[in-house]
Amino acid sequence: MGYGLHEYRFKENPEEKRFAETWSKEDILKYILLPGGVDQHFPVEPSERDKVVAATVIQWLGTPVGQCFLAELGYRKRGKSP
Fold first, then answer.
1. In the chain, domain spans
2. pTM value?
3. With b meaning 16 or more CB within 10 Å and e meaning fewer, what string describes 13-24?
């Protein structure tokens, strides 16, 4: 997996980078895009456009606006462990 469209923002926004890096380690998009849902056993290969769009949305969740969006849904960022 690659990153989204706005890697240039990573230096200024480490949370956005964290979201992007975590997503880039995952290989679940081919399962998310299954037309038959999780009951289908043969994953599809996402197009490059699919990969970029998904990575960009995930990365956006790490932005201040994305964090507000998640907060409106009741999600809160956990504090770092001591």
1. 7-72
2. 0.80
3. beebbebbeebb
